[in-house]
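re: ur question from yesterday

yeah so i grabbed the chain u mentioned. its 264 aa long if i counted rite. heres the sequnce exactly as i have it in my notes:
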Amino acid sequence: MAKKKKVYVEPKKDIGTLMYTSLMLILLTFFIVLCSMAVIDNRRKMLALNSLVGSFGILPGGLSPYITGRGGKDILSPSAPISPKAMDLKKIRAYIKKSGLINGVGVSEGALGVVVTIKSSILFVSGSDKFKQGADRSLDVLAILLKGIDNHIIITGHTDSIPMEGPPYYSNWGLSAARATSVMKYFSTHGIAPDRMATYGMASYRPITSNESDYGRRLNRRVEITIIGDLPGDKAKAPGIKEIRPEPVRTFTYKGFKFRLEEQ
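ran it thru and got these structure tokens back, copy pasting raw so excuse formatting
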């Protein structure tokens, strides 16, 4: 008996499945290209990991309950973020205001850190680097603040645009540098290490307003004290800026059950 000849019948193509698969491959290729072009922010990656671990772990945010401290220990590394935050301006301003230094002293955020600006009229005798009576009060308040931190300090003197040609400075360069140096010497005799400080004289080349009026020239005559970088731990040891020590976590609750933590 002759065998029946097998006839191969090609299955009907599923156009929908083919198009779906092609679309997924295109999307996969697109996201691979995006990832290859992306700049990875490790800090944000760790924050996302914190959130993921917290969703499946014991404490929210990926915290470890076995380390004492408020809320446990964060798995995020202690390294500085990509855009470091400058020193807390509110705390510095509150400290200066509490000390009574309101008129003639300003606090702002600069490119290098916090900048404390003092008008020359409350520090120096006109046209001189000699301190006037009462200047030590302002400098003492700032010296206490600076002694409470370890940051490096830049002291910069500024003048108006009216030329100074007589002795002993012979120019606004000399006067501005002499005033910055006088402030540095004062701080060095009040407990601030000289190797933490640097001084510059900028004469009239960094005005904050126009020199066309007497008011503008008074504003431009100033000394700027720049505190470089972040305030360590976002706290200072100066009076009025207090460090808050949180209580360590002893217990935690997970899905209705209360657990007691013990140090290991």
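noticed a couple things. The two ends are 85 Å apart (CA to CA). also Residues 15-72 form one domain.
anyway ttyl
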